[in-house]
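ESCALATION

Customer reports they have been waiting on this structure for their group meeting. Please prioritize. Original submission:
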Amino acid sequence: MPSLLHHPLDPSSRLIRLMCAEYGVPLDMEEIKPWLRTAELLEINPAATLPILLGDSDQPIVGLLANIHTIEDLYTPSVVTGLIPAEPGARAEMWRMIEWVIGKLNDEVTRYVLEEKIVKRDQRGATPDPAVLRVAKANLNEHMLYFNWLFATRSWLTGDAMTLADFALAAHLSTLDYLGDIDWGKAGETRDWYSRIKSRPAFRTLLNDRVVAMPPQKGYADLDF
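Update from on-call: job pushed to the front of the queue and completed.
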């Protein structure tokens, strides 16, 4: 059984967990705090980033993209359609939206929220900066408008079929939802999409996640919000 070094609210780790759950790949989970930069973590990954997959080989699989391609190469079920489309145009749109989520959304919203609300808990005397959180919230509102526009004409993030891009977005929004940063009453079409993907069996382990001394916002684990 492969082992995954992860943090419960790290969106990249959540994406890999969703991918493995969808493909029926069991994981031995090891929770770590990458911002503490322990010697054990730095020995594996000097960048101190997650996720890290440890399998049968001596080579750890470090980073989100390396993990995605390794799981797709090794574990894609032969009897079902994988999460990466076969058609070039659909595959290109999937990667475009994954880049939007793990790049733009993360850089403008998620990483700031995690830094202020989670990482600073382990920094003596540090408290969340309201100004930073206000900017992140404003940025999130702009992203949600774009996602609503997409979901007004698409069943899933990139078209008529669910892809890895949907899991990427769900990983980030579920992290923000845990921390109470999404107003689902104003989320429109994105709320309808999230309700559907939240109901998938692969999502169940994420809904059971808990951070010590920081419970999720009310409704986080409810399928009907």
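Sent to customer with the following note: The first strand starts at residue 3 and ends at 6.
Escalation resolved.
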